[in-house]
Fold these 2 entries.
Entry 1:
Amino acid sequence: MTRFFYTLAIFALLPWAMLHLLWRARRQPEYLHHWGERFGFYGSAPADAVPPSPTFPTFWIHAVSVGETRAAQPLIAALRERFPDCRILLTHMTPTGRATSEALFGDSIERVYLPYDTPWAMRRFLHHFRPTLGLIMETELWPNLIDACHAQGLPLLLVNARLSERSARRYARFPRLARRALEQLTAISAIGADDAERLRTLGAPAVSVTGNMKFDMTPPAEQLEIGQLLRARIGTRPVFLCASTREGEETLILDAWQAKVGVGGTAALLVIVPRHPQRFDAVAQLVAASGLKMQRRSDDLPVAADTQVWLGDSMGEMFAYYAAADVAFVGGSLLDFGCQNLIEPCAVGVPVLIGPSTFNFAEAARAALEAGAARQIANARELVEQALAILADEPGKVTMGEAGRAFATRHRGATQRTMNQIMVLTGKVNPAAR
């Protein structure tokens, strides 16, 4: 009965969802594409799709957006190594997630949008693709999707699962719905003990702690090469990178930067890379309004000596930006967005600064601070002060960078532990039966 009312609510919200897509399309036209997929209509398979085979497993991985898609990279590599002929389907909810999978995997996988969580759409999705095994990255609990998989006997795993206190409180408002969804999952692999405990409190019957697969993401060699090219374009100037910044953070950073260094008061270059590509132009306007001289990465030109801000308006180059930086602030932490992925700059060996909001990476942030790989700041003024202090302390900068690499290496292994679970389940599943 609880799921019945949930389904009614989903239907009532569908008109709003379509209006939301139209609204988002003002800045990102890709939201107008593939609408049928959001309702479970996929038509014929794409011409470049890997054809389904009854003799090989079909692994379906749901990765909502950019972060989850990147986190799935080591898992997909491990699946391909163990099952060379497998078919891999990646589902998303955002165009940026879809674009990220295109950049990472090209035509080697299939990708579609996961439908809105209505029973009929989810049944159509499962009937069309007939997966052997489902893997949901991080924490996306869709009751009708989970129920449809359970009804069809499809093993469904929640992997790299994280659940912040804030998210746990939201799910706890609907205890029966959350408990039922968690009970119907085949297995749950959490990134940390705190996440596992919150999931158990909501009703998950069995949760294992496997660690965070984002530690298994090694910096791609081609990205490091691009980083060297970017650094050559910058020259010998110190580089302070503000990566994956969210709305509102850039204004605070620019104000603090101007207040501390004034106009032309430092040789350091401030590099800003907004989290969402649809905000590139808006951030460029903020920099222009600040009076600071700016260049854009998309101009594909060397950085002039008098350029004060370099706007990283490119997709899929985050590791390259980290490789070109001397110190990096990880966005989404200065304001209450929960922090973006701080593991990436640590893996590259860049000293890391994070703000007070880290609930999306609480355990990783705590461990990075303890390891000396990161420092936490309270506000934008302190952020700029700490960044300039690190830039001026070469031995300290090197020590923090080495601590970051050691920290990232020490926590690897989650992908293999997750694969161990998958191997147990695939041993019980006959792909030809699906």
Entry 2:
Amino acid sequence: MKITCALSDFDFASTQSDLNVVLYGYSDDGTYGTVGAALRKAIARSKLSPAPKACDFLSLALAVVAADLAGHRSRSPDGWTREFNLTISVVDPTFWNANRAIVENLLAFLTTDRWTLQFVKGGYLSTLKGKPKFPEEDCVVLLSGGLDSYVGAIDLVTGGYHPFAVSQVVRGDGEKQRWFANQICRGLQHIQLNHNVQVPDPESPPSQRARSIIFVAYGVFIATTLARYHAGDEVTLYVCENGFISINPPLTGGRLGSLSTRTTHPVVISLLQKLLDASGLRVRIVNPYQFKTKGEMLQDCPNQSLLKPHAFKTTSCGRFKQFGYKHCGRCVPCLVRRAAFHSWKVKDSTKYEYENLAQNDENHSGFDDVRSVLIGIAECGELGVTRWLGATLSSALVKNKEQLAQTVSRGLSEMQALMNSLGVR
């Protein structure tokens, strides 16, 4: 699929694409897509001053999110792998074209699709009216409304850090994000951003494969607005996720890793960091929980008095919207969450659509994710975690392979304990 993403004054006819997408604007043409118009206004209102290459990185991420929504897996030759030829307008096309192989490899790993990128002149630079603001926070943390990001923000503040919280607004989570930010350390500096992508004939249900890159782009963008960044210092961007979900091991031979997102997979972090370093952006991406399970994150949080009463209010479900903004209780993220609460030995007050997984039907114990977890547990026990993971950690970009493998093993053990407690066989 050939897609062009550019500002509204771009000569779209010159590219002869299957889909044209207006970056940071709107279109009267119903055959066009749009992305980032409200985001541009939110940035202007914030009076923050980002680095130019952070603006380009944001444009890249917006274009990728639009393409991800427009591409239909069912229409690809194998029913899964899509092919994208994506043209993006940026301020510095020379740099991005010279480094596009890094981006193409990153996107291929994130989505299991094939990407060919071309960058052209005509990008967006943030322009401010009046005096810019330079926030005094010492780092940035992504605050999604999920349990891991909530623990991460609490741990940072408890450890003496002063983070700027950044959120991607998701329907059903926006109010939670604001509430979490406000009640941690009497209120964190917080910004909520939304890409508001619209394309004709979107994939349904919408793909989530490439959403990681927009989260990180928001974080990088805000990191370059901090006073310490403008003073020449490096800024750490904390992207907090437990090690099991970070690795996202295929639970059975028939499941692809891209069935879930890979936001903090070591390969993703490594390629993102390589790109940031090449661009001269002084932002360091860190996942402090790469070697912890979700249960261990909950157990080790130093501020239990803040975490215990509110942990159940967070969102983990991969189908949260589908069930009326209620956790399904049976998808892999829900199972990891339920297992973490069980390991933590704190009552899980989350309301689940499918609570009793021991029920012997296709909606409970026979549901695909539940069966896949049981198969994964059994096969890992038989083969050992290293053989079971196979090529999952084989990339040269993955360091500390044994430590990561043991984290995955402990994550499976948490889920096995949950299954045993529920009587799921």
